[in-house]
Amino acid sequence: MEKYQADVAIVGAGGTGLRAAIAVAQADPKLRVALISKVYPMRSHTVAAEGGAAGVVRDDDSYQKHFEDTVAGGDWLCEQDVVERFVRQAPEELYQLEHWGCPWSRKPDGNVNVRRFGGMKVPRTWFAADKSGFHMLHTLYQTSVKFPSIQRFDEHFVLDLLVEDGECRGVVCYDLQNGVFRQINAKAVFLATGGAGRCYLFNTNGGIVTGDGMALAYRHGVPLRDMEFVQYHPTGLLGCGLLMTEGCRGEGGVLYNKDGYRYLQDYGLGPETPVGQPKNKYMELGPRDRLSQAFWNESKKGRTIKYPLGEAVHLDLTHLGEKYLHERLPLICELAQTYSGVDPVKQPVPVRPVVHYTMGGIETDGNTQTRMPGLYAGGECASVGIHGANRLGSNSLVETIVFGKIGGDAMAERAHQIKDHDSAELDRQAEAAQARALSLFDVKGTESLSKIRHEMGQTMEEGVGIYREEESMQKTIDTLKELQKRVKNVGLTDRGRVFNTEWMNLIELGYTLDVAQCMVHSAINRKESRGSHQRLDGPNGAYRQRDDENFLKHSLAFKVAGADEPEIKYSDVKITTFQPAKRVYGAEAEAAEAARKAKEAK
Amino acid sequence: MEATQKTMKVTVLRYRPEQDKEPWEQTFDVPYHKDTSVLEALFYIKDNFEPSLSFRWSCRMAVCGSCGMMVNGVPHLACKTFLRDYEGKSMKIEPLANFPIERDLVVDLSDLIEKIERIKPYIIPDAKNANMPLNKNFKQTPMQMEAYLQFAQCINCGCCYAACPQYKLNPKFIGPAALTLLYRYNVDNRDAGAKLRAPFLNSEEGAWSCTFVGYCSEVCPKHVDPSSAIQLGKKMSATDYVFNMIKPEH
Amino acid sequence: MSEVKSYRKPYNPPVKKATWWLENPFYVFYMVREATAVLALFAVLEIVLGIFSLALCEYSQAATLTGISPYIWYLQDFLGNPVVMGLNVVILVSQLFHAVTWFALMPKAVRVFMNKNSTELLPEWVTKAALYAGLIGATVVILAVAYLTK
Lengths: 602, 250, 150
What we know:
Chain B is an alpha+beta fold. Chain B is 34% helix and 14% strand. The radius of gyration of chain C is 25 Å and the shape is flat.
């Protein structure tokens, strides 16, 4: 097998991976960076992020406010020391992107503008119209071209990690174009492979978002943390599920049910704010979990709008006017028109909640270091600890660059401390990974890859959706166990080596199934409601409440050798200054804050 | 869902490098409704008839640039092209023209990528701004941004190269997307690197290889209008030339 | 990186060097526009021939028709020839076609803002209107000169 010796191997070339690669290259141009991605960098799913990235810049804002919004938004399941560091480092990373050419939208005076976003007290979301992720990704990709020490392995699919003496030493990957395997040895390996939205049928995610890196780490004994927290974005386009950014509501868009009533005021987000005067943390600018849950309740009450493609509510932007919409939300206008036949300038857009983001991921510390020396993780595939039980919109784009940078610096340091390592054992592992992958061609089974994928998506929607119950979750657990058996019996029809997407999809499905199992097992064991994990069951409905006594903890999903299901354990949550309190929005939040201030004044 | 499910004859160009000497055609009956995209038609084929059919895709929302291909001879994004617009006709899907066919609908894009990276697609600040602190942004008014923003919308899908007859006849031509990107950085007020990019713009393979056919702009799924950027690039190149004649030192 | 075995065998579709433009109506349209240049060349040769015929005239015997017989031949036998007349009509139409399609493209080469503080670009119709005004203006001037000097 062809072998390549790197100092740092980065898996995934989206926002996080590219930022990390640049950080390593800047730390020391002599370090050899292998940037491995199963697609060309600009195809990575960072490209689809729309709304923007949060960073404190306004005079009426502060790190403390961003910190509090984030921790409360995450229902106190955040690592508070990591959040503190995160909010402080966010602005400089955003300025860094500006210096590299990112076209952040501007104020007339030429300085960067910010917009409102859900769950954020002060407008602090930097945006590039509604193509923020696209512009960030292209800026990072194009900037990375400057650094000759970054050797890209585009369209290389990672099959396994190389681990010797408990330390991560590299990866094995498959070159899709040439049809050959490559062994890449490295002193540090960084997983930046994105989320796992493809566990679900109805999602905003691209086809590549299959949880590869999470499964790779999990299979090597690194736990996946807080996997039960899966974010439903409240406004996905009906039918296809494409994202209608939260920026729509940040700019003043409102949600109506079938009676033309702004139903969010019934769910602790009111009182109603006048149309055209959005107010932070009120109504449509509440957090995503609350809005998605409100939809579910409206549906139960029969107050949603029935379309041939399913139920929806209306996202109304018409009052914003054509000029403003085309300037601030051009992509939204294009997407609604193309995929829904609706012109947002003239008509409300039918939307519904759709799976969007995995809050959990590979457990890391605040330096992106996992519990396996040499293995790092960042971005959506990691659980570095800033999102808790519910991510606030525009915290994830900035997470990619903040923790890309932190991870890159940490890996550069490690690369200086240790020497190149190669061994017969690594070769053996690489050969074994190759043999395992090739053995899939020998399966003579009759199962269908697409059927299994579909059934997985279906059972995840049914068992671990917006609201959850023991019984349906158990059914999902059983189904997934069954699917794990069936997936071993998929017979491939394509025996080619060049761009064999059937074969790659099968390996991806294996990754996704592992991650799906971690999600539902973590969910069934968390007997409370917190953030995006909402239960309806328990004795006298006890699990409907947050239970800090028993569950102010991270869940950890471990792979157990020989077992076909994950084992769930728990770890403590780091709380520094912000003690858990009731999570409130709208007028209730203002009352709570007034009470707190009065108490402090005494 | 729909009672009257319509079907369309969809022909796909196949090429399996390890088996086939040259490409061949395979036709499928694909059911569709008013929202079925070409990409979804390909999903249907892959899931139901021909799992070995290879094509690139990801975002489904016309922003990742993976799924550029020829539909009835015209470059399109598969995810942004709908069967309803071909009603009553048949459909032929082929890999992007003017690139080597790697396998089925997958082409070798390495030439496109190399050209995008060749033209120094990043901000090259002048000495005064090289070390701007990270708590400060460059001033850029909305108008200064507007000067380049349209040309920063390129998703690198390759449709413009498939549309360009000059690239077809002379593969050395730097081509629409890369020249557009070059222009995008040259007119960004944060950038001072135009001089370093001039050799690419002015070269034989640069802007002057373009004969303003304009088809690239016609097919661009993001309305970037590369032919406009190239004509503006020619102006820049000509000004540069005259300027250099008058003032050979600089 | 040492290149090891590859399973690649990319297929390069043959390029039809002579007939590529027949593959697509847009290319045909483009080629027709370019081809009008050939007709423009004919018009140029026509004018050159006219100038030569003037040069061949004997001006010392100013008033005699035989002296300027080359020019009379040019006017009556050449330009008056029905084939040439027909051809000139075709040339006029083709050059108008060229002008119209070229003007339609020209706004792409013009990117000017409305004013110093505006993000709005000069609308395309302004560029086109300027070009048409130029065309009509030039035509009027030429016709006027022709009329006044007859």
